[in-house]
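Chapter summary example.
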Amino acid sequence: MRFTYDSEEEAESVLAAVQADNEDYVKTHLEGSSVVSEVLAGSIPSLLHTLDDYLSCLTVAEDIIEKRSRRAPL
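The structure predicted for these 74 residues follows.
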């Protein structure tokens, strides 16, 4: 899977947020402003569970980045 962001900084922030929970199930790396993810699973149910968890974490990271970018400067 490839998730592309507006900048390399955003991609790095997302990667840092989701990488801690990846363990051995999701391999991720940066390619410019994209986070590239490879999901590994031994069965279809395991794959679905891993994808659900990973996409939930990714959504939270993206929401935080979006809220930061909308914040007015002090």
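To summarize the output: Residues 47 and 65 are 27 Å apart (CA to CA).
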